[in-house]
Amino acid sequence: MKKYLSILIWLVFAIIFFADKSGAVCPEDPNDNGICDTMYVEIWDDDWYFNTFARFPIYITHDVLDPVDSIAAFVLPFCYTHTNSSKYCSTSSYWNGISWSAPNLPRSIFRHLPSNDNPHVRNWMMDRFEEGSGNVWNGIIMDLDGISHFWLTLIPSGAEDPKFGPGSRVLIATMTFKLQDTMSICMDTCFWPPSSRLAFSRSDAVTYIPRDNLPMCQRIGFQPPPTLWLSCPNTQTQHTNGSFVATGFSVINTGCPDMSTLASISLSFIGDGVTGLALNPPFFPGGCNFSSNITYTVVDHCAAGGFVRVVAYDSWGFADTCFFGINLANSLPELTVPDSIFALADHISGFPVSATDGDNDAVTTSMNAFWFAQDSLQLPVNSPSYNNGNPGSFSWLPTDVDMGTWIASFSATDICGMADTKQVRILVGMTSCGDCTNDSLIDVGDVVYLINYLFKGGPAPDPVCQGDVNCSGLADIGDVILLINYLYKGGTAPCFGCCG
Q1: Cβ-count burial 80-111 (b if 16+ within 10 Å, e if not)
Q2: pLDDT per residue over 340-366, tens digit each?
Q3: What is the pTM of this model?
Q4: 224-329 placed in CATH 3.40.50.150
Q5: What is the CATH number that goes with domain 27-223?
Q6: Which of the residues in the chain have pLDDT under 70?
Q7: In terms of CATH, what superfamily is 332-488?
C-alpha cells in the first residue's frame, strides 16, 4: 500500500504548466514581422587615418528577441555630401571592391574590421565565404559613381545560399571613403533609379522598410585623437505609463582643458512609446566631465519600446556615442477558471472566472464559445449565461438531454490587446461521480479526499458510490488513478452511472 501512496503523491504534484506568447508587429512597417529590424551606419572609431581614409560600417539588427522570419534581400542605397567643396571625397570601386582574396581584402566591402578592443569585428558575408561550400550570397550588385552615392543590393540567389537570420548589430558591409582634407561627411538613404529605395525582403518576397539612424554627419580629417568617454545607464524595463529616471550617465573628456572642452550632448529615442528625454541636472557647455540622470516619459506602455542614443561632442567636433534600451514588455493577463466541473442535470451549475495582470492593466473577461464536445453542432436545451465581469460568473441549467461533456472557452484581454485563453470542461450527468467533496467541482481536493478514505482512515464520500469514478462497482486505487489521469494527463473523464 505504501508503494501505491508514493506513486500517487508523485503523480499529484508532477504537473507541468506551459505558456505561449506572441511577438509584436513593427509599427513603422507591418510587413516587418516580429521586432522592428534596424540598419545602422556609423564611423569606425578604431581607425584614425588623418586625412586619408574613413570607414563607415553598415550593421543590421534583425529579430533579436523574437526571430519569426529571415531576410532574403537587402537594398541599401546611400547618398552623401561633404563640406569641403574644393577637395575630393571619394567612394571609388578600387577602395570598395567585392573581393574574397587575401591581397585585396583591405579594400573589400566584406572585410572583417580590425579593432583596438577586440581581435576584430566579423563581417557576416565574409563568414559565409570562409565556411566554404559556396555559402556566400551570389546576388551582389553595387553601383558607385565615386562622388555622391554608394548603392548596394545583396540577394541569396543560389540554392546553397543561407538566409540572414536573427542577430544584433551584425556587420554586413563597410564603405571606405578616400579623403583629401578635413571635412564633414553627411549621409542619408536615397532613390536608386529606376524604382529602388532602402528596403529589406522577407523570405516570402514581401518587402518592408527597416528602421535606420540616418541622416548623419561625421567630421573627419586632421584632428587630435578622440578624448571622450561616455557611459550610459543600464537597460530600463517599464510596464506602465508615467515619468521615470535612468541613473548612471556620465561623460569624461580626457583631453580637457588643454585640447578641448565639452560642447554639447544630444538625446534621441529610436523606437515607440517613449518621449520627453532630458538630462537632470541639465548640461552646460565648457566643462571637462559631466554626470547626470536621464529622465523620460512612457506614453504608451503597449508599444514595442526601443533604445536611447546619447551623443556627446567636444569643442573639436569629436563625438562619442552610447546606447541603452527601454523595454516596454507588456505581460500577458492571467485567466483563472476551473479545469473542469461536474454539472447535475436539472440543477443550476456555475463557477467564477477571474483575471489578473502583472502590469496592473485593466482586464476584461469574456466567454468566447460553448459547444458539445462529442458533436459541436448540438445546441444545449438552455443557453448558458456569462456576465463578462472581472470577476465574471458563468451559470447554466443543463437537462438530461445535455448529458455528456461540454466545453466553455473564456478569454481575458488587457488594454494592450494581450490575451489569455482557457477552456473549462463541463461534465453533465445524473450523478456526480468523482465529486467526493460534494462541491460541484472535480479537482485535486477530490483526489486527496479519496486517498484519505482508501488509505488513511478518512471519511467516506457521501454517498460512498461517488468514489467509484470508473463505475467498477467499488471505490479503489483504480478510481484514484483515473482521477489523476483525467485532471492532469487529458485522460478519460469520470463515468456517470456510479450510483446506479
Answers
A1: bbbebeeebbbbbeebbbbeeeeeeeebbbbb
A2: 888 878 888 899 999 999 888 889 999
A3: 0.44
A4: no
A5: 2.60.40.680
A6: 1-25, 46-51, 64-68, 115-119, 221-226, 500
A7: Immunoglobulins (2.60.40.10)
